[in-house]
Design brief:
By secondary structure, this protein is of the alpha+beta class. It contains two helices and eight strands. A hairpin with a 7-residue loop joins strand 5 and strand 6.
C-alpha cells in the first residue's frame, strides 16, 4: 500500500467475501492505515475510524485478532442495516472509454459513483456539480476474524485526521 500509514503499525484483517468462509485477498482490510476512516460502511458512514485504532504488536501473532473480530461484528451489523437509497443519475461515455459516472443518495447524503465513496456531498447540489467536485478531487455479510500485525514505521506519530 505504500510507505505511509496513519500509525506505526497496521492490522491486516483477512475477510471472506459474501457467505463464504474462505478468506479472499480482494476483501482484506487494513486497520490503522488511513488517516480518516479505515473502513466505511455500505451507506458511506465510518465503521472504523483512525482514532479508534489502538496499535498492535508485530511480535505478537494474536495482537490483531480482537481488533479484526470487532471489525467483523461492525461489518455484520452494517450488513443487517437497511437504507433509503436512490440512484439520482448515471452517465456513461460512448467514446470507447467505457466508463460510467453516477450520483446516488443514501439517506441524507449524496455520493458520486466511481469516485472516493467516503466523501458525501450536499444533496442540494446538482448532479453535475457533485460529479465535477468528485472527479476533480479524486482523479478519476463478511466472515473471518484472523489478522496480522505489520510494522510500517516504528517512529511514526499517529496521523489521524
Amino acid at each position: 500500500p505504500g510507505d505511509f500509514a496513519a500509525h506505526g503499525t497496521v492490522c491486516h484483517c483477512e475477510q471472506a467475501f459474501g457467505d463464504s468462509d474462505v478468506a479472499s485477498p480482494q476483501s482484506d482490510l487494513l486497520l490503522g492505515y488511513r488517516t480518516g476512516c479505515d473502513v466505511a460502511g455500505r451507506s458511506g458512514d465510518c465503521l472504523y475510524g483512525c482514532s479508534e485504532f489502538p496499535g498492535c504488536d508485530p511480535g505478537d501473532a494474536t495482537s490483531c485478532q480482537a481488533l479484526c473480530a470487532d471489525l467483523d461484528a461492525r461489518l455484520d451489523a452494517d450488513a443487517e442495516r437497511t437504507f433509503d437509497a436512490a440512484l439520482r443519475s448515471a452517465v456513461c461515455t460512448t467514446d470507447g472509454a467505457c466508463g460510467c459516472r453516477s450520483v446516488f443518495r443514501v439517506e441524507d447524503h449524496c455520493y458520486a459513483g466511481q469516485a472516493k465513496l467516503d466523501t458525501p456531498y450536499d444533496c442540494a447540489l446538482t448532479d453535475e456539480a457533485i460529479l465535477a467536485q468528485a472527479f476533480s478531487a479524486s482523479g478519476g455479510g463478511v466472515a473471518g476474524s484472523s489478522g496480522t500485525a505489520t510494522q510500517v514505521d516504528p517512529n511514526a506519530p499517529d496521523q489521524c485526521d
